[in-house]
């Protein structure tokens, strides 16, 4: 690999990733925009991940592979992958997702043409364990009538991530979708380094996107260029606080501790540290009050906190159940 830093750095944190790893690597290495480095941070995998990564690095000089001595948890490994980036643009990749060949090309174009854009991500579709496209009618994260996931013009919200004012973008992220597929978009590296990256708890994607939204606008090429896989082994299917803590940090969850309180403190810190006029800071705090004041969720949150339930939403189970119902329903007559 050349010692000169390429424009784009891709960070791929992995742990026991052998099942889907090669599909991910093929989609990244097959990009039409090829001037990038791919840094793979291996969290001390115990399967064939190391062998697959070393073989891929031998065949393609854009790959740097590093096996870490111990498992630092997903959060530590994601942040480490970003810290090793040399390019002016950075993208996280997940071992079980796939990018269309023009993903980087389209995102680089948008970042190059508009200095006010902090991060960019195209439309998303969900795929199942074997790569099958999840039908829109059984995808619980899709609004009615949509066939792909967009983060612009969210239903029920006045603003979106591309709004002009920082507080408007903050509101769009905080009160908007919980499917933060844009966490796997292309970022300006200097913008990410003005944040605290991922906090050491499960579910910190939305907080990071809110921090980035305070720094710049979001761009969304209107093409489906990202396949996000939902499957039984995905983090979204973790159903208790202990499993989420082990995944995120490699540690053990304390009794009655909750990621929600950690994230709330994170939002407050992001608002406090942001370079905002006093009026906009007040609007961000008002947004956070709306977020906390969703009374309809309090009973569920209290139950989850006392019972040890985590933040996972059983996405794959919900899709599988919807598929079963659809298959059992009589067709049109």
Automatic annotation (TrEMBL):
A Pfam family assignment: Glycos_transf_2
Matches recorded under InterPro entries: Glyco_trans_2-like, Glycosyltransf_2, Nucleotide-diphossugar_trans
Domain Glycosyltransferase 2-like per the UniProt entry, residue ranges: 9-125
Name under which the protein is recorded: Chondroitin synthase
Underlying gene: kfoC_1
């Amino acid at each position: 690999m050349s010692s000169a830093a390429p424009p784009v750095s891709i960070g791929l944190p992995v742990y026991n990733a052998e099942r889907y790893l090669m599909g991910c690597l093929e989609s990244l290495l097959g990009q039409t925009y090829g001037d990038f480095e791919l840094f793979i941070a291996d969290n001390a995998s115990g399967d064939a991940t190391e062998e697959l990564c070393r073989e891929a690095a031998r065949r393609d000089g854009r790959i740097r592979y590093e096996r870490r001595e111990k498992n630092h948890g997903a959060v530590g490994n994601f942040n480490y992958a970003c810290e090793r980036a040399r390019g002016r643009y950075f993208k996280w990749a997940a071992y079980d997702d796939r990018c269309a060949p023009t993903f980087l090309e389209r995102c680089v174009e948008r970042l190059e043409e508009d200095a006010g854009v902090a991060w960019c991500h195209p439309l998303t579709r969900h795929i199942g364990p074997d790569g099958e496209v999840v039908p829109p009618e059984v995808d619980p994260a899709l609004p009615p009538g949509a066939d792909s996931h967009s983060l612009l013009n969210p239903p029920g919200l006045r603003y979106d991530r591309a709004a002009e004012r920082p507080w408007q973008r903050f509101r769009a992220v905080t009160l908007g979708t919980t499917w933060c597929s844009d966490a796997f978009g292309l970022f300006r590296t200097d913008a990410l380094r003005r944040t605290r990256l991922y906090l050491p708890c499960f579910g910190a994607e939305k907080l990071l996107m809110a921090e980035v939204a305070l720094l710049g606008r979001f761009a969304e090429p209107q093409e489906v260029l990202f396949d996000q896989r939902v499957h039984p082994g995905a983090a979204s299917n973790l159903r208790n606080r202990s499993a989420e803590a082990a995944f995120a940090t490699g540690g053990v969850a304390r009794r009655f501790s909750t990621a929600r309180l950690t994230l709330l403190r994170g939002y407050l810190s992001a608002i406090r540290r942001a370079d905002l006029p006093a009026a906009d800071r007040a609007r961000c705090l008002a947004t956070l009050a709306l977020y906390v004041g969703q009374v309809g969720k309090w009973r569920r949150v209290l139950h989850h906190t006392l019972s040890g339930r985590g933040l996972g939403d059983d996405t794959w189970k919900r899709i599988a159940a919807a598929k079963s119902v659809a298959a059992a329903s009589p067709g049109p007559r």
